Amino acid sequence: MANVKPKKSLGQHFLTDLNIAARIAATVDDCPGLPVVEVGPGMGVLTQFLIEAGRDLTVVELDSESVEYLRQGHVPGLASERIVEADFLRLDLAALMHGHKFCLIGNYPYNISSQIFFKVLDNRDLVQECSGMLQREVAERICAPEGSKTRGILSVLLQVWYDAEYLFTVPEHVFNPPPKVKSGVIRLRRNGVTDPGCDFALMRTVVKTTFGQRRKTIRNSARPLLPPGTAFPADSPLGALRPEQLSVQQFIELTNLIDTLRKQAQ
After folding, report:
1. Which of 44, 95, 182, 223 could form a disulfide with 75, with the two C-beta atoms 3.0–4.6 Å apart?
2. What domains lie within the chain, and their CATH numbers?
3. How far does CA 188 lie from the centroid of its chain?
4. How far is CA 212 from the centre of its chain?
């Protein structure tokens, strides 16, 4: 096993506990036949376990110093041509993986983790499983069920297409240097939904609009989405709820209700 030593010069928090790295790498074990894309491998602490497991692995790294470190062969078995120096958020994943379905994994950069998961959402037909480590607050939000105060936009939109599971918490002291926050490891598994039963583009707008005024009830927060002069139906039980209280199915129902009201006003 490669003894990957963190480099402090990059200004990042490097995971130093190999047991935790092994646990994170094992989160994709239930999809053995799929290729794996690792985001932000850094010095390869997670990468080494994915290679030892025999995974068909491609790594995507933006930092040129980390890319050079990996290309020098410090992680045995990682071929140079499988190291992609690029901004993951700008990558065409279909082109990268030649249209093949794959698993995504990583110790995700905290400052762009939400953007990464929105990209997963946009590539849901390709990304069959997504797992890895991110700031605990964001990890808990993604997995939050209806009724949770931490539930938000990503919670609802991702849970339309994925089963979300919070796996375990990672303490600060296993990083060098230690971050000021705890981390959480999650796993999203594609749930097989191909048609959510509503206009998903409209649903995204509904979810974002209502969570934008999360202290208000749906009756009030959804008002900007209704045709001029149209009131939210008084007989709808959804009107008295706040957005974090709605299940995915109830958001689908709300989307269809708004869609119907819009069509009737045309």
Report:
1. 44
2. 8-190 (3.40.50.150), 200-265 (1.10.8.100)
3. 8
4. 20
| Parallel/antiparallel/unpaired status of strands 102-107 and 127-135 | parallel
**What string of DSSP letters covers 139-162?**
HHHHHPPTT-TT--HHHHHHHHHE
Q: How far apart are CA 121 and CA 170, in angstroms?
A: 25
HEC string of 51-83 equals HHCCCCEEEEECCHHHHHHHHCCCCCCCCHHHE
Q: What is the identity of the amino acid at 89? A: L
Contact 202, 237 (CB under 8 A): no
The secondary structure of residue 24, as a DSSP letter, is H
Mean per-residue pLDDT pooled into runs of 10, the chain (266 residues): 40 80 96 96 94 97 95 95 97 98 95 95 98 95 96 97 97 86 96 97 98 97 95 96 98 98 93
Q: What is the spatial order of strands in the sheet that 57-61 belongs to?
A: 83-85, 57-61, 36-39, 102-107, 127-135, 183-190, 162-170
DSSP 159-218: HHHEEEEEEEEE-GGGEESPPSS-EEEEEEEE---S--SS-HHHHHHHHHHHHTTTTS-H
Per the omega criterion (within 30 degrees of 0), is the bond before 237 cis? no
Q: Which helix (H) or strand (E) holds 128?
A: strand 127-135
What's the CA gap between 220 and 239, in Å, rounded?
Answer: 8
CB 173 within 8 A of CB 261: no
- Distance (Å, whole) CA 173 – CA 171: 6
